[in-house]
UniProtKB/TrEMBL annotation:
Cellular compartments annotated: Cell membrane
Name assigned to this protein: Diacylglycerol kinase family protein
Record-listed E.C. numbers: 2.7.1.-
Residues annotated as transmembrane: 32-51, 57-76, 97-118
Pfam families referenced in this protein's UniProt entry, alphabetically: DAGK_prokar
Keywords: ATP-binding, Cell membrane, Kinase, Lipid biosynthesis, Lipid metabolism, Membrane, Nucleotide-binding, Phospholipid biosynthesis, Phospholipid metabolism, Transferase, Transmembrane, Transmembrane helix
InterPro entries: DAGK, DAGK_sf, UDPK
Major subcellular site: membrane
GO function term, MF aspect, one: kinase activity
Family that this chain belongs to: Belongs to the bacterial diacylglycerol kinase family.
Membrane topology, as annotated: Multi-pass membrane protein
Length: 122
């Protein structure tokens, strides 16, 4: 890829592409819908129980990591399907590993949520 130098216009255009990626994630990816629903529930509950700034930082990081992992997973799946539309064991393994990464982060995020919310709710 040729580098034609830095321009503000190019940087702003790159943000447009990035926001389009987020739009695609939340409008087209079914698993991301689940993550977004849980995110909304967590934010509402966090406002109700008045989380501290430190707790919000942990929640925000967990939400961001899960959504970013889901975006990576979706990108890997889309690329893999374009490269090899027919069944391919290596592609299956790659997609399974990416999905497993999302699941690991979702579990870690749930643990973070439980550590923060259980004492406040009970």
């Amino acid at each position: 890829m040729k580098n034609n130098g830095f321009t503000l216009r190019k940087r702003l255009r790159s943000f447009r592409f990035a926001f389009n990626g987020i739009r695609l994630l939340v409008t087209c990816e079914h698993n991301a819908w689940i993550h977004c629903f849980i995110t909304a529930c967590v934010i509402i509950t966090g406002c109700i129980v008045k989380l501290s700034a430190t707790e919000w930082i942990a929640i925000a990081m967990a939400i961001g990591m899960v959504l970013a992992a889901e975006a990576f997973n979706s990108a890997i799946e889309a690329l893999a399907d374009a490269v090899s539309p027919d069944y391919n064991e290596a592609i299956k393994r790659t997609k399974d590993l990416a999905a497993g990464a999302v699941l690991l982060l979702a579990i870690a995020s749930a643990v973070i949520g439980l550590i923060i919310f259980i004492p406040k709710l009970f």
